[in-house]
Specification:
The chain has one helix spanning 2-20; strands at residues 30-33, 37-41, 45-47, 50-53, 65-68, 74-76, 81-84, 88-96, 99-108, 131-133, 137-140, 145-153, 156-161, 166-168, 172-174, 177-183, 192-200, 204-212, 221-222, 226-229, 234-241, 247-250, 256-259, 265-270, 288-294, 299-306, 311-313, 327-335, 338-344, 350-353, 356-358, 361-367, 376-382, 388-393. It is mostly beta strands. The protein folds into four domains: 29-108, Immunoglobulin-like (Sandwich); 131-212, Immunoglobulins (Immunoglobulin-like, Sandwich), CATH 2.60.40.10; 221-306, Immunoglobulin-like; 311-393, Immunoglobulin-like (Sandwich). The strands form nine sheets. It has a five-stranded mixed sheet, with no helix packed on it. A four-stranded mixed sheet has the order 2-9-8-5, with no helix packed on it. A four-stranded antiparallel sheet has the order 10-12-16-14, with no helix packed on it.
Amino acid sequence: MKKLLFIVVTIAAAVLAGCSSQPSSVELKEISLSKQKLTLEVGESKQLVVIYEPEAAEDGAPEVVWESSKEKVAKINQNGKVTAEAIGKATITATCGKLTAECEVEVVKATNPSNPENPENPENPDPATTLSLSRNNIDVPAAGGVYNIEITSNTMWSASVDAEWVTLSSNSGTGNGDIEVTVAAATEVKITTANITFTYGTSGKETLSISRAQRAGKPITLDIERKVVAMKGEFFTINVTSELEWTAESSNEKMVKLSNQTENSIDVAVSDNSSAPVQGTDVVYHPTSTIVFSNGESTATFEIYQQHPYVYLYVYWGVQEKPAAGGTYSAKLYSNTTWNMYFSGDYSWAHLTPMSGSGDATLSLVIDKNTTSKARECRVHLYSGDYGYGIYQAGN
């Protein structure tokens, strides 16, 4: 009986103790992991630790749940231990309530699993031999250059390069030393890379990486730079020379359409302009458009001028008054379209031929003798508009 009473009292005390415990009054603001990035070899394991901010909030924080985005690459147990399974990349996520933290894991091939004696440099199975370089990468401008590399070593070494545009002052040596790396000027319009590999000891290896900037491309050029196009429109091809990819843009898309762009040409279609209003002046304005070619480093401009319908008299009869005696006079008409002429006013004394036609023509004007003392005039009009050319004759 006493034993049963003791058990009941013990349980009651435990319950009361649980009910009286209070959650931490410190609010958890953020969590992070001891590592944000990990590189593991296949089969290798690492421990991740959650860091609480503030630290005092850890006691009352929810339990951490661990998850891997790719279990086949990297596994994670609920204690935060990561195990590399296969080559690849995975994201490890720790979730604590509403807060999360991540670690990016890259799993690589085991470089020398048979060399546990020298884990710090698995590429060198002989820990007694060492080699290091004053730098492991060089960024070279397009003009090239010469670079000095200091070698610190306690053994024999050799160097080889995988690009013809890189030369070395020496390809081998023993112990400490310097070599000059000469990088030729760029000949390509793209970034080029090379590697110098230093080998030493049984199979030790160090690599120097070189990245050379691209040279500037030659200016973009066109086989022709301007063209006068007939009123009816025209279709033609522009040939382009450029070492880089290029674009073309028309300034007047209603007039000029671009199509069929290839690596070194583009087709151009100029629309029909023959239905435009006819101009009637000796100053003829042509519709224009430009095509701008660009390859990012240089530009070239192609100009297009298109004929516009026009008809005008270069010299007309109103320049001076015609004598009462009459006579025959001529004037030159210029046109690239069909035209006709008509009189207004009393023109029975003026005779014009031809009165219509297409293209250029020479007009003949016959003025009858004026037998009256009164001066007379009439006007002749072109098809292009209501503007009239005056014809004047003095009285007798």
